[in-house]
Specification:
Elements (H helix, E strand, L loop, with lengths): L12 E2 L6 E2 H5 L3 E7 L5 H12 L1 H5 L3 E7 L3 H15 L7 E3 L4 H5 L24 E5 L5 E6 L8 H16 L2 E2 L10 E3 L5 H7 L5 E4 L2 E4 L4
């Protein structure tokens, strides 16, 4: 069953490259990014894991934990990590889930409930739907879902930009417009009446249309 924004992210227990975890306990009070891979030793995923390792400090600074997933066992993850470091310059510095029983992939709607058997018998193409990015808030609710094809590498800079927006809009009664970047103007949330807005922004706002109320990004 597909997950929707606002759903509670399914909890699970799993083996990872950093030991067993309970997912909700592992998240704790942080934000989290779960991103999945159809198979170890696949070329595009190799580039993604290396880049994510390189920019992990940017996620750390935002209080965001990172966890990967692949439908392969832990020992293959470890061998793949050596390849990733050799070719990309960075080895994964975050846990990688070994989803050998497909449990997490099924819980998160990436594989059908009827999938079973030995993951070694499945090709990357068999698991091509295991190419998702989930951003999960401290409340354990799904805040973002991105699904990529195997032929297109993911843009983790965009994931960071969305997290900046999610964290800002969770704290303040604003929304971020197209292509917004931190420091740029924002829009007063549609749920805020003009009367309420005047209390928060006594200096007013720019309003090219009554339903568009532009203000500086709150700090």
């Amino acid at each position: 069953m597909a997950l929707h924004l606002g759903d509670i992210a399914p909890d699970f227990r799993a083996e990872t490259t950093e030991g067993p975890i309970g997912f909700h306990d592992w998240i704790g009070d942080a934000w989290a990014v779960l991103f999945s891979h159809p198979k170890d030793f696949t070329p595009i995923c190799t580039t993604e894991l290396g880049y994510m390792a390189r920019i992990k400090p940017d996620f750390d600074s935002r209080g965001v934990k990172i966890i990967g997933l692949s439908v392969d066992p832990v020992d293959r993850h470890a061998a793949w990590a050596a390849d990733i470091e050799e070719t990309q310059g960075y080895a994964p510095n975050f846990p990688m889930i070994a989803d050998v029983d497909f449990n997490v992939s099924k819980l998160y709607g990436m594989l059908g409930a009827d999938v079973s058997g030995d993951p070694a018998d499945r090709t990357a193409a068999d698991n091509q739907t295991v190419r998702n990015v989930f951003v999960i808030g401290p409340d354990k609710k799904v805040k973002l879902v991105l699904v990529y094809p195997m032929t297109t590498g993911r843009n983790f800079d965009e994931v960071l930009r969305v997290i900046d927006s999610l964290q800002l809009t969770a704290k303040h009664k604003v929304s971020t417009p197209v292509n917004w970047k931190p420091g740029e103007n924002v829009v007063i949330a549609g749920s805020v009446t003009d009367e309420q807005a005047r209390e928060i922004w006594p200096d007013g706002w720019e309003s090219p249309k009554p339903y568009i109320r532009i203000v500086q990004q709150p700090s």
